[in-house]
């Protein structure tokens, strides 16, 4: 019996499936593979994986179907693979429960790093009372924020937005999920209010004149706390 973490890989292109199998095995994973929705669900039922990498486009459905089915019984990390330009499908996959996505063609090291990060986030552990990351200190209980030792004054909404992103560190959060969590369901489609608050938050915590250090944008999809 292998003690390697088991990853379900689903793609209907044989060359990609083979490349992923070799890549993940070399990185220390045991690989279960499937080329269809039905095959993926069968494989997961017989030998439940600890994570999954799923292509969005499959011959008998799509990766969203698999994601939704897996989320019915598992909190395993799920990454979706997508072609450039499939923004709507990426959003639907994330809303169905996927943790992240990787766009084809992808770099092997990026894929393994995304998978390992998702698995670390899913691992056991207690919530941090204080999060420290690259000069930022976020005290969840005291609701205080410091950047490079200096206290930064945030509005309640800005703090709640930053706290939600930080507690999902590294994970892509869609516009819709952020709006619902921070503002409520009635704001689910109000992208303008989210963009305005992210801009205000960045002005307060990000280094002036430099690329964002903490809050990264995935264009058309959402934001992630990347520090």
TrEMBL record:
<dbReference type="GO" id="GO:0005829">
    <property type="term" value="C:cytosol"/>
</dbReference>
<feature type="domain" description="Response regulatory">
    <location>
        <begin position="6"/>
        <end position="119"/>
    </location>
</feature>
<dbReference type="InterPro" id="IPR011006">
    <property type="entry name" value="CheY-like_superfamily"/>
</dbReference>
<feature type="modified residue" description="4-aspartylphosphate">
    <location>
        <position position="55"/>
    </location>
</feature>
<dbReference type="InterPro" id="IPR001789">
    <property type="entry name" value="Sig_transdc_resp-reg_receiver"/>
</dbReference>
<dbReference type="InterPro" id="IPR036388">
    <property type="entry name" value="WH-like_DNA-bd_sf"/>
</dbReference>
<feature type="domain" description="OmpR/PhoB-type">
    <location>
        <begin position="128"/>
        <end position="227"/>
    </location>
</feature>
<keyword id="KW-0963">Cytoplasm</keyword>
<protein>
    <submittedName>
        <fullName>Response regulator transcription factor</fullName>
    </submittedName>
</protein>
<keyword id="KW-0238">DNA-binding</keyword>
<keyword id="KW-0804">Transcription</keyword>
<keyword id="KW-0902">Two-component regulatory system</keyword>
<dbReference type="GO" id="GO:0032993">
    <property type="term" value="C:protein-DNA complex"/>
</dbReference>
<keyword id="KW-0597">Phosphoprotein</keyword>
<feature type="DNA-binding region" description="OmpR/PhoB-type">
    <location>
        <begin position="128"/>
        <end position="227"/>
    </location>
</feature>
<dbReference type="GO" id="GO:0000156">
    <property type="term" value="F:phosphorelay response regulator activity"/>
</dbReference>
<dbReference type="GO" id="GO:0000987">
    <property type="term" value="F:cis-regulatory region sequence-specific DNA binding"/>
</dbReference>
<dbReference type="InterPro" id="IPR039420">
    <property type="entry name" value="WalR-like"/>
</dbReference>
<dbReference type="Pfam" id="PF00072">
    <property type="entry name" value="Response_reg"/>
</dbReference>
<dbReference type="GO" id="GO:0045893">
    <property type="term" value="P:positive regulation of DNA-templated transcription"/>
</dbReference>
<keyword id="KW-0805">Transcription regulation</keyword>
<dbReference type="InterPro" id="IPR001867">
    <property type="entry name" value="OmpR/PhoB-type_DNA-bd"/>
</dbReference>
<dbReference type="GO" id="GO:0042802">
    <property type="term" value="F:identical protein binding"/>
</dbReference>
<dbReference type="Pfam" id="PF00486">
    <property type="entry name" value="Trans_reg_C"/>
</dbReference>
């Amino acid at each position: 019996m292998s003690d390697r973490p088991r990853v379900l890989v689903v793609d209907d292109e044989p060359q990609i499936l083979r490349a992923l199998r070799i890549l993940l095995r070399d990185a220390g994973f045991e690989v279960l593979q499937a080329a269809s929705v039905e095959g993926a669900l069968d494989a997961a039922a017989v030998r439940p994986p600890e994570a999954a990498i799923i292509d969005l486009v499959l011959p008998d459905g799509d990766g969203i179907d698999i994601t939704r089915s897996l989320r019915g019984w598992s909190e395993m990390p799920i990454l979706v693979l997508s072609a450039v330009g499939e923004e709507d499908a990426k959003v639907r996959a994330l809303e169905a429960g996927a943790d992240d996505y990787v766009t084809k063609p992808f770099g092997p090291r990026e894929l393994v790093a995304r998978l390992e990060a998702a698995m670390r986030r899913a691992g056991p552990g207690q919530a941090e009372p204080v999060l420290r990351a690259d000069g930022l200190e976020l005290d969840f209980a005291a609701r205080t924020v410091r950047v490079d030792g200096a206290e930064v004054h945030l509005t309640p909404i800005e703090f709640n937005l930053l706290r939600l992103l930080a507690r999902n560190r590294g994970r892509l959060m869609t516009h819709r999920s952020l709006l619902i969590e921070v503002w409520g369901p009635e704001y689910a489609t109000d992208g303008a209010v989210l963009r305005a608050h992210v801009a205000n938050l960045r002005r307060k915590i990000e280094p002036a004149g430099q690329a964002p250090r903490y809050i990264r944008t995935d264009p058309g999809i959402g934001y992630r706390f990347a520090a």
